[in-house]
Structures
1.
Amino acid sequence: MTTLTKPEAQPTPQGSEHFLSVRDLYVQFATEDGTVKAVDGLSFDLDRGKTLGIVGESGSGKSVTNLAILGLHNPRNTTIAGEIMLDGQELTGASERTLEKLRGKKMAMVFQDSLTALSPYYTVGRQIAEPYMKHTGASKKEAKARAVEMLGRVGIPHPQSRVDDYPHQFSGGMRQRAMIAMALVCDPELVIADEPTTALDVTVQAQILDLLKDLQQETGTSIILITHDLGVIANTADDVVVMYAGRAVERGTVRDILKTPEHPYAWGLLGSIPRLSADVNVPLAPIPGSPPSLLNPPPGCPFHPRCAFAETVGGDRCRTERPQLPDGRGSACHLTVDQKRDIFIEQIQPRLR
């Protein structure tokens, strides 16, 4: 594995007895235009039976991070550095054979687009049964019975007949349930759900999230929930990492992030969520500008070109100095604790009521 020349590492959360521990993770892609710094010094922990929400806009590094955990990046154009420990086993630099043994059995992923993630050439039941046969040595008959069981477990009606259907014969919500069944067929200890409610209507979204919670309670599975929507994780996650431009800019419990966020980017994400109590004549307040190019990210704080409070810090600090994410609860921002509190109470909190 290629070694990166890394800038000063961010402080990392304390504690070493975590089921999943990611430390100082860097993921870079070699392209014709240059090197894409997709993940830039990321650290977080996940305990057994808990749910971690990773939140951020498209391009913030959420999916790239979790594909690195699973070892699904193309090694020909990807450079990965840092530490990924899963139940005491180092995944960074592990052989493909080792990762194949872990994928499906120890860790699994629910991909974002179930229609493209499922093969159109094979029945849903066969695609669920295949990893079960691979990891358990079960016969085709046993694996099909397991597929029927899993389809019923995730709420597919008449699983005995639907097991022989193809993905195009399932609705969007049913395909997403089938993806969850495939991820859970070998009872993995870690499930990564990448935008599992994308393109689903609100009712089905709630059903999918409730399903993940129910299955977690049954099996004690640890879950990483990737989303751009703080509303999705409100009643699902235990802890949250807010990502921007490949970095963690804020970390805390779900209550911390939703009730007392500290980073201007988190304020922007919360402010863009519609509220039933809001005046319908008042438009939502989007975050101005666009996410930065990861080919050439801005110096200093990556959010400063879009931040309404960069001038509050004073001088060129936001433009020249990279803010560090403190241990435990905190945010990577140059605003002082008092400034964050005053801005939130006076300007941000009234908009969130």
2.
Amino acid sequence: MKRILSIDGGGIRGIIPALVLAHLEDTTGKPVADLFDLVVGTSTGGILACALTRAGPLRRPLYSAHDLVELYRERGHDVFNGSVWQRISTLGGVLDEMYDHKGLEGVLHHYLGDSLLCQALAPTMVTAYDIERRETIFFKSWRERFNHINCVQACRATSAAPTYFEPALVDLDEQERALIDGGVFINSPSVSAYAEALKLFPGEEFQMLSLGTGELTRKIPIEDSRTWGKAGWLMPLLSCMFDGMADAADHQMRLFLGNNYRRLQLNLAGASDDMDDASPENINALAELARDLIAKEHETLTQIKYWFQPEL
């Protein structure tokens, strides 16, 4: 039996899957890199995937999931560091990106250093999209094509959400590629993770844990939408795409794997659904929702824990 971990995108809301994984590490006594045979993430999920499989001394994981919870608490404001004036001058991301990518890159360098994707402790994949060639990119730690790609490059690309950060420029196939957040085509990467697992482990059976970053609760009143043009629809349309794709992937995986598939997701009532709300108040609210989810899904998490028990 091979185990797959899939982590959604969602910006600062990545603290939710980080807390769930911290709970799983605590209850099993094992790090994520030892628990799963394939780790796949999009956007903030891609950052978690690369950080949790980064090798430290003696080829042991450098970070625990608890360490990554602190990434969101302590460094979230460094990633989303735009001023009020920047929001106004860019019309909320309509005229230009809302945030300087240097803040994001600084955090990525702090946690990922110069580690190469191919050095990951478990097979790891993150998603991106090439806007010039109009093609999907799946950075795979086991593919020779990506041996020169470091984790900072892969994570900068997968987290370059349109309107938030400018595209990442990455040398790939001896060409410079302009890459953006894989969430534009696959915010919940579970189906692609399953497809890769079928190729990596032919003939095996699979169990998958898919972690969401919260379902959106903010309604889009039809009265408002009637007056929107291109600019007005931009941000709501992105949120609809991300949410809709995650629901579709969840439905498909339930058909593919049945009881061997578990999805942990929550409603964002009580916290902001903005990907960039890194205020202490919102981070605390997101963490509280995650703790409620862990309590509510105690039985499911206990079942998942038994996935990792030695077979008799």
3.
Amino acid sequence: MGTLNDLNVAMLAVDGFEQVELTGPRHSLQAEGARTVLVSARTDPILGMHHDKPGDRFPVDLTFLQAATEPEVFDALLLPGGVVNADEIRMHPKAQELVRAMFDAGKPVAVICHGAWLLISSGVVKGRKMTSWPSLQDDLKNAGAEWVDQEVVVDGVLVSSRKPDDIPAFNRAFIEVLQAAKR
């Protein structure tokens, strides 16, 4: 029996997400009993990437519109990176709405690599301590965040990491935050 049974984690992504930044955390969450729900712009399967090479297609469970209509069904949010994914997803108003709803409700949010662009566009990073892929540090600082170069940063219920190499530490920190929030 997992420590995260009965938790629903929304994973937001569009084509071009860094595959391991979704599959690594998803596997760890599911191993602890959490239910993961892939949320995207459309219901068509989305394409993961292995850096600059196409990866696998993943079935989508809900659209941003559907998820934003009932954000209370989710206990947490996971935002993988990938430059193409992160650049597009930040332009979806319903994805931004879902992010703001999770922050407003004080629910855990985990973001890795370029995924922080969606948080910036959603207006939720001001006053937060976090990390990201190094090229986002100016964007985060300009949006009011304190950027640090660390494997994983936990600021309340916000967990952030820099890159795929950080996934083991990212997974451990996110699971600890989810376990604490569940109590």
4.
Amino acid sequence: MNIRFLETFVLLARIGSVRRVAELVHASPGAVSMRIRGLESDLGVTLFHWDRKTLQITDAGARLLRHAEAVIEATRTLERAARSDDAIGCRLRVGVLETAVHTFLPEFVKAMGASLPHIELDLTVDLSTHLSEQMMRRDLDLIVRTGSGVDPQFAVVENLLEVPVHWIARRGLVPRKDGLHKALGKQLLTQMRGTGPYEQAVAMAQQLAVQNGMVSSDLRISGSPSLAALVSLVREGLGVAIMHGMLVAPQLESGELVELELPTPPSFRITTWYPKSPSPGVTDTAQVLRRVCKSYCKRVSPHLARYIG
């Protein structure tokens, strides 16, 4: 049912003049009449008695008038709510991968408070695959996850960062001479088992082991339950980490940790996903997120993170 037909019906019932209603809705008198005829056809009732000089609402029209007014008001309320996220405030459910927590998330939360104070963030930290499932169930409004290489049918995907992966160790743990062989002989540390970074790290370490005459089954590879734990282990010198260097940017800058000159693992993309028909609050939040990621990348070395939004 066309809402404009209902609006024309209510105006005509109140004013009683086709010509005046036509002026108000910026249409011709003929168009007003056609709208009423269309509504009568949709409802299966006669709304007005017409003749050359008078226009009188029928009993059926009078009975339906209050219902039409209620539908119009409900529609306007819906439209106001959709347009006024920034005026009335809203809660936005945002899911992020743990990498964001240890890098740009604090700045993002601060920027949201400054730019969009009416939006209350409800944050979830989880694995990328779990975040996608929650968004598909409409439990999350926007997520930040690693790029999947798959274009989801239910979401808009925007690139944020390209994040290189590095071999990281405590200074002095791995000698320069025969560094690759010595590094592979250490405890290898990486992200949680079952994640993309874990699988990629294992595959690369096994390939390098075979290429260097080692038995891949002799490798000792541990998946850390959290990035905070991973950083703590590598800082204690308990192994060689295959990880995002940006997670330990201060330690690399100070010299506490070093990047080993070993074959470079493939980089990861960090992306944001949100519904294809987002609310204004979601699109505004995505814009703040892009701005924050761009600013973050300006502060760290391009060797650690590059903005690709």
